[in-house]
Amino acid sequence: MFNIMIVDDEEEILELMEVYLRNDGYKVFKANNGTEALNIIHREKIHVAVLDIMMPGIDGLQVCMEIRKKYNIPIIMLSAKSQDMDKINGLSMGADDYMIKPFNPMELLARVKAQIRRYIYLNENIKQHEENDTVEIKGVSINKRNHKVHLYGNEIKLTPIEYEILLLLASEKGKIFNSEEIFKAIWKEKYFEGNNTVMVHIWRLREKIEENPKEPKIVETVWGVGYKIEE
């Protein structure tokens, strides 16, 4: 059974999410503030966290940042705001997905399932029979068995999405991937023009592996086309 943590200061939304998630077979941990959410994260084994951004005290963005300091679990952010900046802020803090309130509970279930599929992929040894379990390029070493990434020997903590993007680009050295191709490969969803999700995650990845993210030498931009990692 997978454990889902839901965090929202609106009791009605918490109860609605809990009902749908429990009926779908998940064990649910509820919190109505950021402090309680962090206590749950440190106490329980959580597989997916669903965080509301706007909460009194410690808001969802701060909770997301704290979770990312120790854990690589998938995080879905909730917000009543539809502005691109709010979405970019959430993704920049390490969130993997973003939903706007009000939302269809069935869509939440679908997104939770999608994140769990990624969680399983990243945490189970599903590639035991591959001849080469390590991808190495430009000082970056990606271990596909334990999903650890090292930069010149030092371990780099990546989110599941960042890891998948890096592995995708590094596994096909020199190939240019546009944003739509990356989005479909990683999120397994339909891509819409103007979606800046890939751009935000690429920037976050560069902040962790590039000496100067503004002048990347590892994950290169091919202007007007997409992204690549050269030999």
Automatic annotation (TrEMBL):
GO biological process per UniProt: regulation of DNA-templated transcription
Function text: May play the central regulatory role in sporulation. It may be an element of the effector pathway responsible for the activation of sporulation genes in response to nutritional stress. Spo0A may act in concert with spo0H (a sigma factor) to control the expression of some genes that are critical to the sporulation process.
- Species of origin: Clostridium frigidicarnis
Q: Which domain of life is it from?
A: Bacteria
Annotated Gene Ontology cellular components are: cytosol; protein-DNA complex
Which Gene Ontology molecular-function terms are recorded?
phosphorelay response regulator activity; transcription cis-regulatory region binding
* Record-linked SUPFAM superfamilies: C-terminal effector domain of the bipartite response regulators (SSF46894), CheY-like (SSF52172)
The keyword DNA-binding belongs to this UniProt entry's keyword annotation: yes
The residue ranges of the Response regulatory domain are 3-116
The molecule here is called Stage 0 sporulation protein A homolog
Under the heading SMART domains, the entry gives: REC, Trans_reg_C
The OmpR/PhoB-type domain extends over: 132-231
- Modified residue 4-aspartylphosphate is at which positions? 52
Task: Please provide the record's keywords in A-Z order.
Answer: DNA-binding, Phosphoprotein, Transcription, Transcription regulation, Two-component regulatory system
Q: What Pfam families has UniProt attached to this entry? A: Response_reg, Trans_reg_C
Q: Does the keyword Phosphoprotein apply?
A: yes
- Quote the DNA-binding region ranges, renumbered to this chain: 132-231
